[in-house]
Specification:
Keywords: Membrane, Transmembrane, Transmembrane helix. The chain has helices at about 15-45, 50-75, 80-105, 120-140, 145-185, 195-220, 225-255, 270-275, and strands at about 265-270, 280-285, 295-300. It is mainly alpha-helical. The chain has a single domain, classed as Rhopdopsin 7-helix transmembrane proteins. Helix 1 (about 15-45) packs parallel to helix 7 (about 225-255). The radius of gyration is 22 Å and the shape is globular.
């Protein structure tokens, strides 16, 4: 007889009705969010290029195969468990690693020098290879005729990968929170009332919520309910992407609210009156690289220049159609 933690790892799931309904609810939430995010992302992103855009798309669309693969596997829509495991593996890579790349591509919102965050990208690539490939091999082996040989290793490695990924996202979130607090601490003249200060506080809130979701994911992972953990993970990652979208909406709202009537070819927004202690300039160049924009700012004193807000901000302008 299979252990409780083994239920759903090999073959389908034979669970109680409440457990099945919980699984269906999580998968439904995830798939609904994929549909909604797909419409939103193509409505907001007018220049569809750049790391932020593509990582967001890949992470969003990766949720679908991750969910569909488990539907095929858990409910035995097909008895080809190797096929469903392969679909889940593809979804895992796109969904999980894509989410980390989304967070990385937004690091430049609070850190000017890209070289300071390059190691984060290397960490993501390293973990993707070290975790993704062995996990896929173990998952495929667990659902093959040689299942007893692979099952113990898979159960251990599955826990290892989720801990490492959560630590990875924790590191990125801590960087956000630390750098954001530093930026807020240096902006003493605006009394925290400007839109940029509100945006920074929103960033802190977003990253705290992400940390809370990761903690709940770890708790479910070690509860011994594989069928709940996997479906809950799919829902959690779709929710985290929707939270990420709230940051994008806040950025777009700031630009829309204060858009000036300058040259339509190069929209420039001066945020100087809002920040008082700094001269901030947000420029959206539609002839630039994709949908990315830059915020360039100079501090009033040279020794604090490195702490001024935003060397490079990646965001999407929703003001122009097409």
């Amino acid at each position: 007889m299979a252990k409780e933690e083994d239920v759903g790892v090999v073959g389908g799931v034979n669970a109680s009705f409440p457990i099945l309904m919980t699984m269906v609810a999580f998968l439904s939430i995830a798939l609904y969010n994929v549909i909604e995010l797909t419409f939103l992302v193509f409505a907001i992103f007018k220049k569809r290029s750049g790391l932020y855009f593509w990582s967001f798309v890949v992470a969003t669309w990766g949720i679908a195969p991750h969910a569909v693969g488990f539907i095929l596997k858990f409910f035995q829509v097909t008895t080809l468990d190797l096929l469903s495991s392969a679909i889940v593996g593809i979804g895992w890579g796109c969904m999980v690693i894509g989410q980390s790349v989304v967070l990385y591509s937004r690091l430049h919102l609070v850190i000017r020098d890209r070289s300071q965050t390059r190691w984060v990208l290397y960490m993501i690539i390293f973990n993707a290879i070290v975790l993704g490939i062995p996990l896929l091999v173990l998952a495929m082996g667990t659902n093959s005729q040689q299942s007893p040989r692979f099952l113990p290793g898979f159960l251990i490695y599955d826990k290892v990968q989720i801990v490492v990924i959560c630590v990875q996202e924790l590191i990125i979130s801590i960087i956000y929170i630390y750098e954001t607090v530093r930026l807020l601490g240096h902006d003493t003249d605006s009394n925290g009332r400007g839109p940029l200060q509100k945006l920074l506080r929103h960033l802190i809130f977003v990253n705290i919520v992400v940390l809370i979701l990761d903690i709940t994911l770890l708790a479910v992972q070690f509860s011994g309910h594989y069928e709940i953990q996997t479906t809950y993970k799919t829902a959690v990652y779709s929710i985290k992407l929707k939270i990420e979208f709230s940051v994008l909406n806040r950025l777009v709202s700031i630009v829309e609210h204060k858009q000036n009537g300058g040259n339509p070819g190069i929209k420039t927004l001066s945020l100087g009156p809002w920040t008082q202690s700094r001269k901030t300039r947000l420029s959206t160049r539609f002839d630039g690289p994709g949908a990315f924009s830059k915020i360039e700012e100079t501090s009033s004193s040279d020794n604090r220049g490195k702490d001024s807000f935003v060397g490079h901000l990646e965001y999407i302008s929703a003001r122009e159609g097409g």
